[in-house]
């Protein structure tokens, strides 16, 4: 009896977001990094990476506007 090859395991969207977040902050483990390359789709990581980067930029922008408005500066 021969074993049928297992279909490639796909990563969940939550797992991709966790991997991208860990990579952005430089705390990605080598084991997880290898798993991402073995099972992940490049397009999924690119799209999630762009969304995370835009979210980070907008978050920093919002915090700066909040800080400026709290000290009485004209934040536009």
Which helices and strands occur, and which strands form pairs?
Elements: H1 13-24, H2 30-39, H3 42-70
Description of the structure:
The protein is an all-alpha fold. It has one domain (13-70). The chain has three helices and no strands. It has helices at 13-24, 30-39, 42-70. α1 (13-24) packs across α3. The longest helix has 29 residues, at 42-70. The chain starts with 12 loop residues before the first helix and ends in a 6-residue tail after the last helix.
Approximate strand percentage: under 5%
- Taking all Cα atoms into account, the compactness measure Rg is 19 Å
Total number of distinct structural domains:
1
The strand count comes to 0
Distinct helical segment count = 3
Q: Biggest sheet, in brief? A: none
Overall body shape: elongated
Helix content: 55-70%
Task: Decide which structural class fits the backbone.
Answer: mainly alpha
Give the end-to-end Cα distance, rounded to a whole number of Å. Answer: 72 Å
Gist?
It contains 3 helices and no strands. It has 76 residues and is mainly alpha-helical.
Any key phrases for this structure?
0% strand; 3 helices; mainly alpha; 76 residues
């Amino acid at each position: 009896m021969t074993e049928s090859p297992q279909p490639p395991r796909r990563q969940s969207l939550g797992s991709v977001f966790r991997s991208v977040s860990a990579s952005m902050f430089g705390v990605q483990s080598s084991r997880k990094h290898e798993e991402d390359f073995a099972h992940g789709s490049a397009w999924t990581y690119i799209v999630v990476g762009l969304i995370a980067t835009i979210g980070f930029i907008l978050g920093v922008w919002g915090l700066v506007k909040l800080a400026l408005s709290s000290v009485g500066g004209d934040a536009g």
